[in-house]
């Protein structure tokens, strides 16, 4: 049977689940602001191959997951997630200072590594905080935060740039969203495994 609105309401009843879904939405909004506008930013800097951002960041994500996935199951997830989100926000904000290809790629590697740690932990905490009978539905709701971030992020970023703000302001906004996600995780979500 398809879940109805009553099932969704039950899945969202625990405050900790709503908080983590909010954190997930902020992470996806912040990362989308970076992903979606990176080509334009790189062209603005005069970089010849902006696509290397995606190669380097994705490679770092894969490497972190391949090497450290076992660690993610053994550590206190909430604390590590907060550290990863702080580092991710630093990477997002650092793009406002990037002026060279080497720095561009170095920050891409840091960004990818942080995403490789943060995203699995967000999903894991949402799963662990959900009521056991609603975990499948809650996992689907968490995927909806990804969809919402990927749809709304480009619109938000375009509005920021159309209003005359720079890419630096856009990256600052991305960092602010990620810090907001960190605050939700740190101060609103109960401790977990």
Model description:
This protein is an all-alpha fold and 193 residues long. 81% of the residues lie in helices and 0% in strands. It contains 7 helices and no strands. It has helices spanning 5-11, 15-45, 52-72, 77-94, 101-129, 135-162, 167-188. Helix 2 runs antiparallel to helix 7 (167-188) and helix 4 packs antiparallel against helix 5. It is globular, with a radius of gyration of 17 Å. The model has no long low-confidence stretch (mean pLDDT 92).
Provide a brief overview of the structure.
The chain contains seven helices and no strands.
Distance between the termini: 32 Å
Number of distinct helices: 7
Q: Given the C-alpha coordinates, what overall shape results?
A: globular
Radius of gyration: 17 Å
Order of helices and strands: HHHHHHH
- Which regions are unreliable across 5 or more consecutive residues at pLDDT < 50? none
Mean pLDDT: 92
Q: Which class of secondary structure composition applies to the elements?
A: mainly alpha
Helix content: over 70%
Largest sheet: none
Find the count of extended strands (DSSP E, 2+ residues).
0
Question: Per DSSP, what share of the residues sits in E-state strands of 2 or more residues?
Answer: under 5%
